[in-house]
Amino acid sequence: MKLERGKLRRQGVLLYLAAFSMIVVLIIAIMGGYLYRFYHRTIYENFVESNETDLGAIESRHENDMEIISNVVSQINLSADCTEFMLDKQPLKSTKLEEQLYQYTSVSQFFGQVLYFYHGDKYLYNSKTSITLDNFVQMGLVLEEISEQAFHDLLCAEDYKLKVLPEQKASGYVKVRYMNDTDKLTVYLKTVMPKKNAVMVFLVPEKYYDELLGSDESEDGRNHYILYDGQIVSKREKAALESDSVLTELTNLYAKQTEKLNDGNQKEMAISESMTIDGVSMLVSMKTGVSGLVYVSMQPMSVFAGQIRSGMWGIVFLLLLCSIPAAFGILLLYRKIAGRIRRINIMLKKDDRPYDLENIETGIESLVKNNETLAKSNETLARTNETHIPLKKNRFIGNLVRGVYRNEDEIRMDAAEAQIQIPESVSVFVIMVGDLGGDRGQSNEEKAEKEMLELIRQYSKIDGYRIKLISKTRNVFVIFASDRDQAEKMLVNFFKIGQVSCEEFVMAVSDYHEDLMEVPQAYLEADTAFDTRFIVDNSNMIRYQQASKVEHIEILPESFLRRLKNAIRACNCDEADEVIDEICSKLKSSNHSLLSFRVLYNDILHILITEWNDTHVDFSNIYNVFLLSQCLTVQQFSDILHEVCHSLIEARQTSNDDKSDEPDMASKAVAYMKENYSSPDLTMAALAEMLSISPVTMSVEFKNRMGVNPSDYLGIIRMEKAKELLKTTSLKVKDVSAAVGYEDEHVFMRRFKKYVGKTPGQYRDEHTKQN
């Protein structure tokens, strides 16, 4: 019997160790599987990111070049005096046109030649000479994949759509003379707006796309494509694929990308997907540019598989490193357990009993007591955390009503931290209750609040919380619901609790909103409805739809906001004050209701603060929903708007002073325009010549530095000077026009009205009456 008992004990120890070893092996296997999945996901994400980065670089450069040709077309449009002519009648103008085309060709790294064709004439021009249209399509530039008549029709078309002729072999004396170093050309045709009576032709050589997309012999292993209007414009393939198969698959992927852009409202978003094309598994990344061109980068999935294989040895080595100490630990555990079993056997031999059950039972009782103590400690810790939850909820609701969140993701993240459940499909509304308690005491008010919060928790599809407005003796509840029927039932019971608990209970409810960012607007609706409690029946809940008439909120004319923005850009406090006074005058005369007045106030401040959000001006004490709810008069609105505009102007002046010592091109251009604005010969071409750069380069750098085109900036200077002359002198409109650089007074009057919103005569009469 003793031998059998010892054998069983030894077998028990071995079984225990075997089970423990299997658990360790299982843990290592799970860890290995997790490492493999993590490594696989990481490598794949890096693989996709690498492909999208490569695609982004191609798209960025090519779209920049497409924007340059758009700027070139715009510059040609501004030079109508030397572009819209007939060579037979005005031969001298051809020289100016050729000089202008030479400027574009000489600085371009994109197109090798640019040609201009005015539909009223029969000649095309490049930077050197002219050629008749028929001669051009027959012998000048002969394309392999397009007929002479089709090419002729494209040149004479009068629509604004960009036309692209895919990369193809070209011949003809224009190509031989000016672009003899390339066999293939890609042709872009862009109509000159707004008259659509001319077209510019840009010839892009093969070597540009070799550099951009990589030649067929490049070592990066990627295929690159550029598509437009259902056809491949240019391609560079490391792995040769059937063009029809590629085009079919890319068309389907483009449809998916278009659907995602429409659903997500995200511009220029890249999409990546693994697909099999012509029997080859490829990772395809696609991105649509602003110009409408579609960019595609493909990389074989075999590259990804190779990266996975090369990393598998690292995972195997890591698992071996983990297995060795695990095996060593099991061995030590076996020796330790075996020693304890031997000691237990020695103790059992004292009274010949196989097990000491009393000692085991005592040990278990001790463990149970320890667990109970630990459970009590955890319960105490949970109660401590629960005391902080109401504070988090209160802070979250306050921030939400104030409108401090920038997007819906931030709202949902803070709501989860405060243990408030916001459904995916949400209808949010605001309840405002007042006169809680009355003469019945503070305890009755607290009881009503607790019952209201408990009522919210009773509904499975509703959640929310409240904040107290001490200054207004009101409570504001923000409710999130996924079922409006439940919400309506809750509102009825909500009102009943208030009536039972309070002597004079008033409850106002906003409209339903499906956008979490509209909670501040819902607060304003509830506050507006609450303010009508003395003139409507408040024996039932006051709904915003019933308490305020539905009205169309008139938006201020665009000219007001444009003038206000221009005044801030020019750091002109007097002009800003003048525009604000005109806005307030219009608000007074339009008889807005309190709600529409507050909404207009909110929209104007939001537009200004959004545009200049980089000025580091703190608007928290000016632009928040609680201050807005206390804004009751146009004068209060005027004071706040003056404060905002002056703060923006001071911030911009400080920023300009910090940058005043920077000797950049834009500063030189601004100084030159301010000195020579009265000269009608001051054109963008003349300004670029003075700065010794091309007009296109000047336009791009000036806009990057100042935020507006140089021609628009010159227009602002001239309009501001014209306003000053109209107010301070008795010059005729024709003389004012000439004084600010306009030879044609009709052009001046049209641009002045677009800028100010009034004709020069109306503007002068108005200021004469005010003086």
- So what's the CATH class of the largest domain? Alpha Beta
Tell me the span between the first and last alpha carbons.
124 Å
Please tell me what the overall shape is. flat
Radius of gyration: 38 Å
**Largest beta sheet: strand ordering:** 3-2-1-7-6-5-4
> In CATH terms, what is the fold-level topology of the largest domain?
Beta-Lactamase
List descriptors.
Beta-Lactamase; 771 residues; 7-stranded antiparallel beta sheet; Alpha-Beta Plaits; 13% strand; single chain; 60% helix; alpha+beta; 4 domains; 5-stranded antiparallel beta sheet
Care to describe what's here?
With 771 residues, the chain is an alpha+beta fold. The longest helix has 77 residues, at 2-78. The protein contains 26 helices and 17 strands. The radius of gyration is 38 Å and the shape is flat. The strands form 3 sheets. It has a 7-stranded antiparallel beta sheet with strand order 3-2-1-7-6-5-4. Helix 17 runs parallel beside helix 19. A hairpin with a 2-residue loop joins strand 10 and strand 11 (280-288). The protein folds into 4 domains: 1-355, PAS domain (Beta-Lactamase, 2-Layer Sandwich), CATH 3.30.450; 391-547, Alpha-Beta Plaits (2-Layer Sandwich), CATH 3.30.70; 558-658; 665-770, Homeodomain-like (Arc Repressor Mutant, subunit A).
